[in-house]
Amino acid sequence: MVSYQKFAKDVGFIGAVQVLTSLGTFFLLPIITKTLGTYDYGLWAQINTTVSLISPLALMGLSMGFVRFLSSETEIKIIREAVYSILFFVTISGLLASFLLYTFAEPLATFGFKDPHATYFIQAGSLLILLSVIESISLFYFRVFRQIQTFSYLTLFETFGKLFFILFLLKMGYGLLGVIAATLVVQGFIFLISLLMIISQIGFVIPRFTYIKEYLHFSLPLTPNSLVRWITESSDRYMVTYFLGLGSVGVYSAACSIGSLIQLFVSSLQLILLLIKAFR
Description:
Low-confidence stretches: none
Number of strands: 0
Number of helices: 13
Mean pLDDT: 85
Structural class: mainly alpha
Strand content: under 5%
Largest sheet: none
Oligomer: single chain
């Protein structure tokens, strides 16, 4: 049973960090919109929306399987095999998903984005899927094993790393491609740091995928939840694009981002409660 003192400390710490990350994301919004304009920002928002749809499907619910099976596990050999099995598995699925998006970028740009010239940017952004899934699993390790401070620092570093690197590349005149490149570099760096920290704690092993069938049996039925969540939270971007164009989606996405700041008051509590439930 997790003590209430530890619970309160975790909530307070991660709450403060998430306030800072939310503010960092908020400060990034006017920088991108002012530099790119509404049209390119709408294209960037649409790429993010597409990645947010495909990435959870590539994860196949294994992040929840991580919580379910490893939150109370203490045997290092089991933890090591499970962590690397899941990580290798989502790397393969993430690569496949990125490849599919890259392959079908042109028809997506034509019919989904209503702009064939967006193909190049969609292809560049396709790698965001791979990095999103492997980074998500690596960070989940610290959440599951109650290393809240490490998780929070990595999240904070990612947010402000993106802020300053994107600002730098925009100042250099790289435009939307610079935003995509900065996001890829920072997420890749966070993953490498997380992986090195994981290896230092549990060592490294080539997985035999001993438990992956059991994990998938639990996690696959949860995968449609992400699709439903995407439909209710993000599919409206595609509708705005279809009827009004990418410029209008830029304005709409910016307004939604400002309105979503209210979520920072409950997101930290939700995160800790998820872990508390897993430990009970």
